[in-house]
Design brief:
With 520 residues, the chain is α+β, with helices and mostly antiparallel strands. The chain folds into two domains: 1-232, Uridine Diphospho-n-acetylenolpyruvylglucosamine Reductase, domain 3, CATH 3.30.465; 235-488, Vanillyl-alcohol Oxidase, Chain A, domain 3 (3-Layer(aba) Sandwich). It is 26% helix and 21% strand. It has 13 helices and 17 strands. The strands form three sheets. A seven-stranded antiparallel beta sheet has the order 14-11-13-12-16-17-15. A six-stranded antiparallel beta sheet has the order 1-9-8-10-7-6, with helices on both faces. The protein has a four-stranded mixed beta sheet with strand order 2-3-5-4, with helices on one face. Strand 8 (165-173) and strand 9 form a beta hairpin. Helix 3 packs antiparallel against helix 9 (337-348), helix 7 crosses helix 8 and helix 7 crosses helix 10. It starts with a strand and ends in a 19-residue tail after the last helix.
Length: 520
């Protein structure tokens, strides 16, 4: 596999040189503010704007030689302070590395880490009629999304994004401090196969800097690009229902949340007729606007599936059985696939300000005690957040057809993802808002030590929503280390990959993979 080395930070690129942006540059402030979480402003000594792999190689090698800490970002959606830690001297910004093309030499689609999800879908769809089963967002970029095992509305039909990852190019550092670009593929005989595996759910900021991805669905043959990745539906049935008001009583809430969980327990097998349906139930807490508890259900159903409308209607009947609270609105419409993704992105890209996000993989829906905890916490006395919610989103389906050891993403028998989100704007309210969401998450998972410890009900946490509280004995009393919550039984293998490709621990943060000790 090819490896390249560059040692000068003044290589020609674009109009002349690698771009270094310091605080006296008018471009610095917009770059500093390109962060999804206002709690962690990104203000390094310098940003380095990379346009090609050689830029990253030279920047990393220069930083190692000077003893300067370096981190990397693509879309800026690290929700903890891993990229923007005060000890970071240089942030490598990959946003300009956003190409999407078909690489005929590899027979796969090449995508840059700075390419934003919606842009990728539009280019793949318009150019070749194919797509990837990732998340819906206008601002999240591929760099970190893929490394964490990104998922989205098509994952129940086609698995996660990493299930289609053919190869990855990574800038790594050897024991002498030399930086080089390595291409690692899913081929078992590839000497860098373990490095590929680590990028199928091992999380960002652990092993090196990803500079290119290649995607091709396993088992596809031939050279026709239109047959090498999943084809999206032609049409999608989209549905939304909103409940709000004091008439969302405990019994209706129990019925709604319980029904949603039970439906997913029964309909999330890889061969289910419902693999074409992605649904979510969002539970909104009382916020600073004083609005009462509200809930919103949404569903996206592949309209190309036989009896799609009947399947959707059956899902909605099961969801609302026993719910006596009146809904404020309920709509179903048919959209072409790409507009449906745009509408889903508009609905999900709405959290701004200062954030705390926690996530859980669920093997079954919440039980009665958990549902009552949600009701009491979300409906209780007004707290200081601008927006607080718990979102229960479809998972499973064909995601669960892949063995847990095949990728670094080990959660392969979950049926739901639960996202706990709190957002506010005033820094003076940090303590109150952090305490509120920490206590909510702890109490929902009280039976398993305050976290979704793997077992009958749960299967740990999602690495793309890292939560540093899982390192704390105050908030994690399960006896399960954070590494198992995120990586299951794969953590030791990740540590060995780390030792081989980042032995100097150049790429590290509060929850990074620690290198295994090799040899005597």
């Amino acid at each position: 596999m090819p490896e390249r080395t560059v040692s000068s930070a003044t290589d020609p690129v674009g109009s002349g040189r690698v771009e270094t942006i310091t605080p006296d540059d008018p471009r610095y402030e917009p770059l500093a503010q390109r962060s999804a979480n206002g709690r962690f402003p990104c203000r390094p000594k310098a940003f380095r704007l990379a346009h090609r792999t050689e830029d990253v190689v030279s920047t990393v090698e220069e930083a190692v030689a000077a003893g300067r800490r370096v981190t990397v970002r693509s879309g800026g959606h690290c929700y903890e302070g891993f990229v923007s830690d005060s000890s970071v001297h240089t942030v490598i910004d990959l946003s300009a590395m956003d190409g999407v093309s078909f690489d005929s030499g590899r027979g796969a689609f090449e995508v840059g880490p700075g390419a934003r999800l919606l842009d990728v879908y539009e280019k793949l769809h318009d150019g070749w009629g194919v797509t990837l089963p990732g998340g819906a967002s206008r601002s999240v970029a591929m760099g970190g999304h893929v490394q964490g095992g990104g998922y989205g509305a098509l994952s129940r039909s086609h698995g996660t994004v990493v299930d289609h990852l053919q190869a990855v190019e990574v800038v790594v550092v050897d024991p002498s401090g030399r930086a080089r670009a390595v291409v690692a593929s899913r081929e078992e005989d590839d000497p860098h196969h373990d490095l590929w595996w680590a990028h199928t759910g091992g999380g960002g900021g652990n092993f090196g800097v990803v500079t290119r991805y290649w995607f091709r669905t396993p088992g596809t043959t031939g050279a026709d690009p239109s047959l090498l990745l999943p084809r999206p539906p032609s049409w999608v049935l989209t549905h939304s229902t909103l409940w709000a008001g004091e008439d969302m009583d405990r019994d209706s809430f129990r019925a709604l949340v319980g029904n949603h969980g039970r439906w997913h327990e029964l309909n999330s097998a890889p061969d289910s007729p419902y693999t074409g349906l992605f649904s979510g139930l969002v539970l909104f807490g009382r916020g600073t606007d004083g609005n009462p508890l509200a809930a919103a259900a949404f569903a996206h159903m592949d309209a190309d599936v036989p009896d799609a409308r009947r399947l959707l209607d059956e899902h909605l009947r099961a969801l609302t059985d026993g719910v006596t609270a009146a809904h404020l609105s309920s709509t179903t419409e048919t959209l072409a696939w790409l507009p449906s993704v745009r509408s889903l992105a508009d609905a999900q890209d709405n959290e701004t300000g200062r954030l705390k996000i926690k996530a859980s993989h669920l093997r079954r829906g919440f039980d009665r005690d958990q549902i009552d905890t949600l009701y009491d916490r979300l409906r209780g006395a007004e707290h200081s957040a601008a927006s607080a919610s718990v979102s229960l989103q479809s998972y499973g389906g064909r995601v669960n057809s892949v063995p847990s050891h095949a990728t670094a993403l080990p959660q392969r028998d979950s049926v739901l993802k639960a996202l706990f989100i709190n957002a506010w704007h005033d820094p003076a309210l940090d303590t109150a808002n952090l305490a509120w969401i920490r206590e909510l998450y702890r109490d929902v998972h009280a039976a398993t030590g305050g976290v979704p410890a793997p077992g009958e009900a749960n299967d740990g946490c999602f690495v793309n929503f890292p939560d540093s509280d899982t390192l704390s004995a105050e908030w994690n009393t399960s006896g399960v280390p954070w590494s198992r919550l995120y990586y299951g039984d794969g953590y030791d293998r990740l540590r060995h990959v780390k030792a081989r490709y980042d032995p100097l621990n150049v790429f590290h943060h509060a929850m990074s993979v620690s290198p295994a000790r090799l040899g005597p």
